[in-house]
Design brief:
Helix 3 packs antiparallel against helix 5 (about 90-110) and helix 4 packs across helix 5. The protein has 2 domains: about 1-245 and about 445-470, Aldehyde Dehydrogenase, Chain A, domain 1; about 250-435, Aldehyde Dehydrogenase, Chain A, domain 2 (3-Layer(aba) Sandwich). It has helices at about 1-10, 35-55, 55-70, 75-85, 90-110, 150-160, 175-185, 200-210, 225-235, 260-270, 285-300, 320-335, 390-395, 410-420, 455-460; strands at about 15-20, 25-30, 115-120, 125-135, 135-140, 165, 195, 215-220, 240-245, 250, 280-285, 340-345, 360, 380-385, 400, 405, 425-430, 445, 445-450, 460-470. It contains 15 helices and 20 strands. It starts with a helix and ends with a strand. It is an alpha/beta fold. The longest helix has 21 residues, at about 90-110. A 7-stranded mixed beta sheet has the order 12-13-14-11-10-16-17, sandwiched between helices. A 6-stranded mixed beta sheet has the order 7-6-5-8-9-19, with helices on both faces. The structure holds adenosine-5'-diphosphate. Adenosine-5'-diphosphate (ADP) binds near residues 169 and 221.
């Protein structure tokens, strides 16, 4: 980790990055004002057409170098993630591998950005399509996956022949800067992928949306900011991909394998201390099995080890900051005031200011704020339901539509529920759905566009149709 810190630490830097476990400052980094980003956009714009003209095979081989360098630095990058974002080191190692997998994947996909010939509507005409890079792109990324949220956007952009400027979250610029350094080492021209940390994100968002040299904005973060950016991007009818908040239901039916459901629940809810946009947010459990499920889940949750992410065996790290902690505490307080019961947890953990005990709440009802707000903390609210129709009604009763999960064995029920859930991603008998091979993204107010899979490349490509006449 030190070699990266040595490269980025800037005593005069305006952005201080702290360790959420201790509050200690890890590094200060240089920030960029809109005026300083202007020449960076210029260079990215000028360099993009040169990058796009290189054979896809060359771009693929540079991306492959980048993938190899990221994996060769897996342990160092993982330490950096844990230091700035707090998650347990085992999860950070997993994130580096997951993030790198997008680079590997898009190195291959970029070579298959095929056009098509279409059976013609006239004897002397031919119809064909080609795919071309959208141009210079901008990305704004969140703090909860400081490596993977960057590679998920940058790898397909570079593979498609775009250039890209990334403004990382204020809390976690270090991982993004490390990725930029490794990309340059791998052979990505420095103008083609730039990272520009900032202390005040709003003017940077405005710049990205108003500069006509930038053709696309990819954003991952809160729905409120996503809406603002979409409105700003409308001025130039700029392409946008938005990966926003969720309110994931995790449904356990009475024919489920309960032990598997409990393990799935732990994986889905407690990863990154509950701070992922696909974390289970509401546990809907069929009434006949609710007591048994809650007792098994609570026993597992009470056993989770809380501590600083760098310590051995820790499963639950700190929340990102005081605001994150206060939000979780107030959601639990509101639920308890309205009649929810604490099965385990329910208070600050003794490890430090930002630590919250892994918690299970029972008797949760839809009038409690915790049932409708994204928790972003290690709290599992349990709501019981009577039948399939009621489960689907409660699950879909949200403006969000990112991820949903359910456990059931009956094949008819599996199909019915999977089809009825209004979410972009559904985990059936699984609590972890993220993979580079599948399209990640939401419907309703959870966003637009998909990341990963073959569809993820299309987000950075324009489809051009050509009609050849007079043959
Ligand atoms: P969170 O609540 O998880 O921090 P945000 O949506 O506030 O989610 O932050 C996600 C990213 O959006 C971060 O990089 C942050 O700097 C950026 N951001 C926050 N507010 C704005 C804004 N008004 N315009 C552009 N980017 C913003």
């Amino acid at each position: 980790m030190q070699k990266f810190l040595d490269a980025f630490h800037d005593e005069a830097g305006k952005l201080s990055v702290d360790d959420p476990a201790t509050g200690r400052i890890i590094a200060k980094v240089k920030t960029y004002s809109p005026g300083e980003i202007d020449p960076i956009i210029d260079a990215a714009w000028a360099g993009q057409s040169v990058w796009a003209r290189r054979p896809a095979k060359d771009r693929a081989s540079i991306l492959r170098n980048w993938f190899n360098l990221v994996m060769a630095n897996q342990a160092e990058l993982a330490q950096l993630i844990t230091a700035e974002c707090g998650k347990p080191i085992a999860e950070s190692m997993g994130e580096v591998a997951y993030g790198a997998a997008f680079i590997d994947w898009f190195a291959e996909e970029g070579r298959r950005a095929y056009g098509e010939t279409v059976p013609s509507m006239a004897p002397d005409k031919r119809v064909l399509t080609i795919k071309q890079p959208v141009g210079t792109c901008a990305a704004i990324t969140p703090w909860n996956f400081p490596v993977a949220m960057v590679t998920r956007k940058v790898a397909p952009a570079l593979a498609a022949g775009c250039s890209i400027i990334v403004k990382p979250a204020e809390a976690t610029p270090l991982s993004a800067l490390a990725l930029e350094q490794l990309a340059v080492e791998a052979g990505v021209p420095s103008a083609i992928f730039r990272v520009t940390p900032a202390t005040d994100p709003a003017p940077i968002g405005k710049l990205f949306c108003s500069d006509t040299r930038i053709r696309k904005l990819s954003f991952t973060g809160s729905t409120a900011v996503g809406k603002k950016l979409m409105e700003q991007a409308a001025q130039n009818v700029m392409k946008v991909s938005l990966e926003l908040g969720g309110n994931a239901p995790f449904i356990v039916f009475d024919d489920a394998d309960l032990d598997a459901a409990v393990e799935g629940a732990i994986a889905s809810k407690f990863r990154n201390a509950g701070q992922t946009c696909v974390c289970a947010n509401r546990f809907l459990v069929q009434d006949g099995i609710a007591e048994e499920f809650v007792s098994k889940l609570s026993a597992r949750v009470a056993d989770l080890q809380v501590g600083a992410g760098r310590e051995d065996g820790v499963q639950i790290g700190p929340l990102i900051n005081r605001a994150g902690f206060s939000k979780v505490q107030s959601l639990v307080d509101d639920a308890v005031a309205k009649g929810a019961k604490i099965a385990t947890g329910g208070a600050r953990a003794s490890n430090g200011d930002n630590f919250y005990q892994p918690t299970v709440l029972t008797g949760v009802t839809s009038d409690m704020t915790i049932a409708s707000k994204e928790i972003f903390g290690p709290v599992a609210p349990v709501i019981s339901f009577h039948d399939e129709t009621e489960a689907i009604r409660i699950a879909n009763d949200t403006p969000f539509g990112l991820a949903a999960y359910f456990y059931a064995r009956d094949v008819g029920r599996v199909w019915r529920v999977m089809e009825a859930l209004e979410f972009g991603m559904v985990g059936v008998n699984d609590g972890v759905i993220s993979t580079e091979v599948a399209p990640f993204g939401g419907i309703k107010q959870s966003g637009l566009g998909r990341e990963g899979s073959r569809h993820g490349l299309d987000e950075y490509l324009e489809l051009k149709y050509a009609l050849m006449s007079g043959l």
